[in-house]
Design goal:
The protein is of the alpha+beta class and 655 residues long. The chain contains 21 helices and 23 strands. A hairpin with a 4-residue loop joins strand 2 and strand 3.
């Protein structure tokens, strides 16, 4: 007996996404079976794990497996498992809607994608494989019962934007998905999913390594005797997969295609990995690991609550799907499996955090991943560039958190620079390459931080560096504002921001030649600098002449040990209290605006009461000079309306 049937609508974005999938977004329709088998395998893993954790769970685990049933008339394909199953609420949450964030982004990217392989790449990032069933079926039914519960749930949809759901009383433990296949296409025999040979082919290709048996009943025809007896038909149950753990096989026994299919299974991906890492540990801590670096960053790479970590097995028994303890946070994009030999199956995250074996394995895995990245950097530069483009910002997090591997991370890191950006921003440089190009006598590695390389290339802070041929690293990721303070040097060369502290790019000879000129400038501008410091006292800590400006009138400098405005904003956004620090205003003594301001102040300074209106005007010019320095580096004046009013007034007088 069943309760009443409810008809519900898909979540709006899910409905639009479903429409795209139904209209053959995938170029390879066969992939739907891999997704269903992967989901079934996950359900069996979860049940095995839950029975270890919950001894009171009443669930049958005597013969965990996956069944595939083919019905030729009517054309039907059924994939069922006796795993963990789902509750009514879980069906609505996981099937009726797309609970993951980023659905709108995926939908827009799918609509914009021009190539079929590009769309597959996008789908792999968002984990919506269940919906691929509607490419081959015009109706999908799901029947599921949660292990340990008596009630079951039936979900049905034709992909038209709605689905029905009802509670039923009688159903086996686990989940079955029934596909009512679309009418047979006589011209497309390659996609006949009612043919035993086709199902065998797909399971062998995509799911041979699944740890659970994948079974299918197959008809065996025996010819009749010479006496005219009819053919006999027997039904036998065949196991379609080898169930061999790929990570336990010697590398020479595993093909590249097998590795790639295994990656797609564990990562729920649709493209081949960028590289494969196979390793094993001997001695006191025995383990086997099979790791993969993806070719694309997932949409939730920087989401705080995203599930990260590799899968943990113990003696080939699945224990945990997202073991963060085995991989540092900055390598959270790495996918794979680690099979430890000497641990108890009954482990928790608290136990893992204190386990010496886990700590040792984590250390070895980290070094292996970093050495693999180094090998890509020297041996496969295109693959390395892809990796750095997708995951460079994440890897740089390790410069702050992993001091043991900090130097290695610095070696495998790449950056845009004024040297590599000269051809339009396509180049990247390593720190070692930067050091090789350093000018004679240069002792520091110069860098600039900002939102984009293009904006930094136009920054006033770089003017003298470019004029004198000094290369500057252009650091544009938010994390760059933080890690530079954690890295004192590279190969004995300290890192120096072009926007912090004092900078003197002159050689010893130039300093001697220009010493008299500089001293004269200091005397000439002394009164103006003192007046500006008093006038702008609420905004700046000091005003001085600059040696880093050639074209702009002024720029703002953070004190050597001060916090940059961008870093202060990041700290405040994370809830930390950061004191508001004043910066230093540097002036270009050769710029007409600055020399004009000096002359105007010199003419009025002796009798400030008599020339009060002119002094107010000079004070407003000082505000404009400070505001333009802010704007030049991408900041906004503290009082935009006041700044705009002053600027409009000056423009009105100039026309």
């Amino acid at each position: 007996m069943s309760t009443r049937v409810e008809q519900l609508e898909f979540q709006a974005e899910a409905r639009q996404l479903l429409e795209l999938l139904i209209h053959s977004v995938y170029s390879d329709k066969d992939s739907f079976l891999r997704e269903l088998i992967s989901n079934a395998s996950d359900a069996l893993d979860k049940l095995r794990l839950e029975t270890l954790r919950n001894k009171d769970l009443t669930a049958d685990t005597s013969d965990l497996h996956i069944d595939i049933e083919v019905v030729r008339d009517p054309r039907t394909l059924i994939v069922r498992d006796n795993g963990i199953g789902m509750t009514h609420e879980e069906v609505v949450d996981l099937i009726g809607t797309l609970a993951k964030s980023g659905t709108a982004q995926l939908r827009q990217q799918l609509q914009d994608a021009q190539r079929a392989d590009a769309t597959e790449d996008l789908i792999g990032q968002f984990g919506v494989g269940f919906y691929s069933t509607f490419m081959v079926a015009d109706k999908v039914e799901l029947l599921t019962r949660k292990a340990g519960e008596s009630g079951a749930t039936r979900w049905v949809s034709t992909g038209d934007g709605t689905y029905t759901i009802e509670s039923v009383d009688d159903a086996p433990q686990g989940t079955s998905v029934t596909l009512h296949l679309k009418p047979e296409d006589a011209e497309d025999q390659l996609h006949d999913y009612t043919a035993d040979r086709k199902i065998r082919e797909l399971v062998k290709k995509y799911s041979d390594f699944i740890a659970w048996p994948i079974r299918m009943q197959v008809e065996q025809h025996s010819p009749g005797g010479e006496d005219g007896a009819p053919d006999t038909v027997t039904v036998e149950t065949h196991t379609l997969n080898s169930m061999k753990a790929l990570w336990a096989k010697p590398k020479n026994e595993v093909s590249e295609e097998e590795y790639h299919e295994f990656y797609k299974h564990i990562a729920h991906a649709w493209e081949d990995p960028l590289t494969v890492i196979s390793m094993r540990g001997e001695g006191s801590f025995e383990y086997q690991a099979l790791l993969f670096i993806p070719p694309h960053a997932p949409f939730d790479l920087f989401t705080r609550d995203a599930r990260t970590g590799v899968q943990l097995y113990i003696k080939r028994v699945f224990v945990m799907g997202d073991c963060e303890e085995l991989m540092p946070r900055y390598l959270r994009f790495v996918k794979g499996v680690v099979d430890a030999q000497g641990m108890s199956l009954n482990v928790s995250r608290e136990i893992l955090q204190q386990d010496r074996q886990v700590t040792a394995i984590r250390r070895r895995l980290t070094k292996k991943v970093l050495s693999t990245i180094a090998e890509l950097q020297t041996g496969k530069p295109e693959d390395y560039r892809t990796l750095w483009t997708q995951f460079g910002a994440v890897l740089k997090e390790g410069l702050m958190s992993d001091l043991d591997n900090q130097h290695t991370l610095l070696q495998v890191s790449s950056f845009s620079s004024t040297f590599s950006d000269a051809d339009g921003g396509e180049g990247l440089t390593t720190l070692a390459q930067y050091v090789e190009r350093m000018k004679e006598g240069q002792e520091q590695i110069f860098y600039a931080t900002g939102p984009s390389a293009d904006q930094l290339m136009k920054s006033p802070h770089l003017e003298a560096f470019k004029a004198k041929g000094y290369e500057v690293l252009l650091l544009t990721d938010p994390v760059d504002e933080i890690w530079v303070s954690s890295v004192p040097e590279f190969d004995g060369k300290p890192l120096q921001s072009v926007a912090k502290g004092e900078v003197d790019l002159d050689s010893d000879e130039d300093k001697a030649a220009h010493e008299a000129e500089r001293e004269a400038q200091k005397q000439e501008f002394a009164d103006l600098l003192l007046w500006l410091k008093e006038t702008l006292a609420e905004r700046v800590s000091d005003v001085r002449l600059s040696s880093r400006l050639t074209d702009s009138p002024a720029c703002l400098i953070t004190p050597t040990f001060g916090i940059t405005p961008a870093l202060a904003r990041m700290y405040r956004a994370s809830g930390q209290v950061v004191p508001t620090g004043k910066r230093i205003l540097e002036l270009n003594p050769s710029h007409p605006v600055v020399t004009g301001l000096r002359q105007a102040y010199a003419a009025e300074k002796d009798d400030p009461k008599e020339s009060a209106p002119q002094m107010r005007r000079l004070a407003e010019n000082a505000e404009l000079l400070y505001g333009t320095a802010l704007i030049a580096e991408g900041e906004i004046p503290e009082d935009p309306a006041k700044f705009a009013g002053l600027l409009a007034d000056r423009l009105a007088q100039a026309v």
